[in-house]
């Protein structure tokens, strides 16, 4: 069994004539939290969507859990143990919180009650609101629900796209704490975040994406103390 749960080599992704991802190499070891940092339009969401099969690459390879998934459709990738909580929440608004969580388990034969209990434990707000229609939740609560739903499939790899986007600081803390708990339970996490400092503090390693290319990579400590990264992403001169 390879130590690498996810291994991406020379990935290229185009939107028509626009080259969004220009040959990136990236890997995530089992048990790690890895973050991808980058400015708006750098290609972070494109990278995540290509990994989970929502977008097709033009060339390069993606190996997940020792299997080449480059040509595999998204629903099969979910069954292999990868779960993606996309940017912008996308919960089922006319279903209750609990029904949304159940939907997250569709790739399993039946939902796992212990997983559901655990989600309610790490995100108690969801328990309090379990009968409420998801469309009436606040933005932060919808974000919690999107994460909870992604965990219901008991993934090996959880992919999170901007989980703290637009949230008040107190909810950002709740979300990051939940991600930490998820990681501690043994789930490997790939995280895209605008909140670079918080993401690096949580992560083992990070990559910096600029205009479709990886410009820096290293341990979180290396990136947190790098002057270039501090200036560009951590708001320090
Ligand atoms: P943000 O932080 O703003 O979400 P990002 O790093 O996630 O940005 P992407 O959304 O991956 O960036 O976009 C990368 C590039 O690809 C951008 O230049 C964007 O305009 C372009 N792009 C994204 N989606 C499409 C699309 N459907 N059609 C054409 N170009 C696209």
List the ions, cofactors and other small molecules found in this model.
adenosine-5'-triphosphate
What is the typical, i.e. mean, pLDDT? Answer: 92
Using DSSP, what is the number of strands? 10
CATH architecture: 3-Layer(aba) Sandwich
Regions with little confidence, pLDDT below 50 for 5+ residues: none
Output the CATH homologous superfamily: P-loop containing nucleotide triphosphate hydrolases
Q: How many helices?
A: 10
CATH topology: Rossmann fold
Shape: globular
Percent helix, as a range, is 25-40%
CATH class: Alpha Beta
Number of domains: 1
Could you give the distance between the termini? Answer: 44 Å
Give me a quick take on this structure.
With 237 residues, the chain is an alpha/beta fold. It is built from ten helices and ten strands.
Question: Can you describe what's shown?
Answer:
With 237 residues, the protein is an alpha/beta fold. The protein has a single domain (4-234), classed as Rossmann fold. The protein has ten helices and ten strands. The strands form two sheets. Strands 6-7-8-3-9-10 form a six-stranded mixed sheet, sandwiched between helices. The mean pLDDT is 92. It binds adenosine-5'-triphosphate (ATP). Adenosine-5'-triphosphate binds next to β2 and α1.
Write the layout of secondary structure elements.
Layout (H helix, E strand, L loop, with lengths): L3 E12 L2 E12 L3 E5 L6 H8 L7 E6 L2 E2 L5 H6 L2 E4 L11 H7 L9 H10 L1 H5 L10 H13 L5 E5 L7 H16 L3 E5 L3 H7 L2 E6 L2 E7 H6 L1 H7 L4
Parallel strand pairs: 3-8, 3-9, 6-7, 7-8
Antiparallel strand pairs: 1-2, 1-4, 4-5, 9-10
The structure holds adenosine-5'-triphosphate.
Adenosine-5'-triphosphate (ATP) binds next to strand 2 and helix 1.
